[in-house]
Amino acid sequence: MAEVSERRPGFGAAVLGALASAARGLEAFSFPQRCAGCGVPADPDSLLCPECLASIPRLSMPLCVRCLEREREPVGCLRHPGFTVWPAWVYEERAALVVEALKFRERPGLAQRLGAELGRVVPAEPAPDLVLEVPLHPSRHRERGYNQAALLADALSSQVAVPRLEGALERVRPTRPQVRLGSGSRRSNVAGAFRARRPGWLEGRKVLIVDDVMTTGATLHACLEVLAACGARAAGVVLAWAQ
Ligand SMILES: [Zn+2]
Ligand SMILES: [Zn+2]
Fold first, then answer.
1. Cα–Cα distance between 169 and 198 in angstroms, integer?
2. Measured between alpha carbons, how far is 179 from 134 in angstroms, rounded to an integer?
3. 52, 59, 135, 209: which sits with the fewest CB atoms below 10 Å from its CB?
4. Ligand 1 centroid from CA 186, angstroms
5. Between 127 and 31, whose confidence is greater?
6. Whole-prediction pTM
7. Cβ atoms within 10 A of the Cβ of 229, count?
8. Which residues are CB-neighbours of 118 under 8 A, at least 6 positions away?
9. Nearest-angstrom CA–CA distance, 187 and 150
10. Which ligand approaches the C-alpha of residue 224 most closely?
């Protein structure tokens, strides 16, 4: 009997685990087997059918986030080489469906499919040697259970066969969701919010830092400043730019 009661918490945890996994199974089952954009049958891991995916406007030019976050023309800047960000897509209706699915319903399968979209914009020179994610604050990470930027960083790392260093940057204070703020407040919201866990790990490295959506560029700008201060040569890669 003693043995049974000792095992009880483990048994309870196993039941909970099984229920959680059944719920995940149901969730996967209830995900649209149809394209979220146009309704034709589609692979649930892709969310969109190939036509809808291909119809998202692509960008193949870098933006300068130092200029972007100061509301200057971000295209064609040659003055701030440490602040280049490569967006794969223009954020519009179909891109939003993908980003929402990635952000609010964990979709590692979906993230893996996006590696090719991110890999497409990565410049050949300088060849990167490290992929990082824009970190979430630990409190937000706990709340959501995962960091969508890390899922994308993982997908990019596999796509371009460059190692990923998880947790290289940390968000040292919680920030408000940027989406609710004006551009001036976005800058002050993230100022000093990021820090390198071990600056020595980044010194001299050619780094790509990945995020899902960029709007004013304030978050990427803050991260790139930290990376430059560590002696890294860094550029950003984002799935979508919300102009
Ligand atoms: Zn479609
Ligand atoms: Zn610039």
1. 8
2. 16
3. 59
4. 34
5. 127
6. 0.84
7. 13
8. 88, 152, 155, 156, 159, 210, 237, 239
9. 22
10. 2
